[in-house]
Structure formats: C-alpha cells, structure tokens
Design a protein that fits this description.
about 210 residues, eight-stranded mixed β-sheet, globular
C-alpha cells in the first residue's frame, strides 16, 4: 500500500487516493467516550502534578519548545508501562511545520512515536503551546492508514502538551473519526480522561499487558 509523503499530505489527498472518509457513526469509536478502566489514587495524584508542572511553565512560553514530551508525555507513557515489554516504542522521522502569524513565521516539528504498530502518538513541538493539534491531523491519518494489519483498527493521539485529540482509523473500509478535544486549560484535570482512554487502548492493542 503506497502512502503519500507525510509532510505534504492533505486529508483531501487521502480521500482521493484511498477513499478515506470521516465516519459520523457514534459507535465507530466508543473507546474514547466509554473507557472501561479506572484510575488509581496514585495515578490521579501524578496527573495532577503533571498539570501543575505544565501550568507553571505557561508563564514562560519561551521554554515550551521541548517540554511537551519531557513534562507531559513522558510521565504519562511511564504510568502506562509503554517503556517496557511487551510494548516497543520507536520514533519515526520528524515532519517540519510552520505557520504565519502577524507577519512572523512560526516553525514547529511533529514527532511520531509508534507503539505495537497500532497506537501512534503524534507530538507537536513548538515555542507556542497553542500550535493547533489539527496541523498534524493529515500526517497522523497517513501513518494510521499504513497499519500493516489491515483488518485491525489503528489509534492515534495528537498532542501539543496542552490539547489532546484521539483518532481511530480502519483500512477496510478506509474511514476515521476523532474524539472531542481535551485541554489542560479546561476546568478539572482532563489528563484523567486522557489516561483512562490510553489505558483502554493499551489493553486493546496488547490484551495480555
């Protein structure tokens, strides 16, 4: 199965090349809205600490460029046990992105982390923590469609450290949908929902873990 260059792909190109469509069926992606697992008190305490750490850094946006993985994503992956067998973590080549704002060119980078070929974590790193997660949507869908197990669904998470968007895609037929947008700026701590969903996806892609 040929895939267009990730850094250049658009959703329209994926639609034309593979027949990809956005599913409107609420039953297509129940994993994000109806997670079947719960969090421990310790996990909730760690997530509250992660949010507090990230919130404190919002006062100094110039240091946000490389904090997404270090402050937010790394401890979450550790809570999930994704650094140890039976999971395998690898990094795909980065994709450069940029946008123009008030005459300034703002550059960022998309890193792709892969777990068991079925869970793709897309991390947007930029000096602006509000760099939209939708910038990485076409590239992430391109990778999900490259799942070597065509009969199995693939899942993705796009994050800029502040906002989180989950995706589910299948190849036969080629369709996808997304969760609602979770944000650390919302009341309470939506990292709890994010971790709940990731725990559910972990059991889906590796039931014995």
């Amino acid at each position: 199965m040929s895939i267009l260059a990730a850094q250049d792909v658009t959703i329209a190109q994926l639609r034309d090349a593979f027949g990809l469509r956005h599913s409107q069926d609420p039953s297509f992606f129940p994993e994000w809205s109806q997670p079947s697992v719960s969090l421990s008190d310790l996990e909730e305490q760690v997530l509250d600490r992660i949010k507090a750490n990230f919130t404190s850094l919002m006062d100094a946006p110039s240091v946000l460029e490389n904090t997404v993985k270090m402050v937010v994503l790394a401890p979450i992956l550790d809570l999930l046990g994704f650094y140890q067998p039976p999971f395998s973590l690898r990094t795909e080549p980065s994709v450069a992105i940029s946008t123009e704002d008030e005459g300034m060119i703002i550059r960022g980078r998309i890193d792709i982390l892969v777990l068991k070929n079925r869970l793709w974590l897309t991390v947007i790193e930029s000096k602006r923590s509000d760099f939209s997660v939708t910038r990485a949507l076409p590239q992430t869908l391109a990778y999900l469609l490259a799942n070597p197990e065509p009969t199995q669904p693939s899942f993705g998470l796009i994050t800029n450290g502040n906002k989180f968007l989950f995706l589910k895609a299948t190849r036969q037929p080629a369709q996808y949908t997304n969760s609602r947008l979770f944000s650390l700026l919302n009341p309470n701590n939506e990292l709890r929902q994010v971790l709940n969903i990731l725990k559910d996806l972990r059991h889906i892609i590796e039931p014995t873990a």
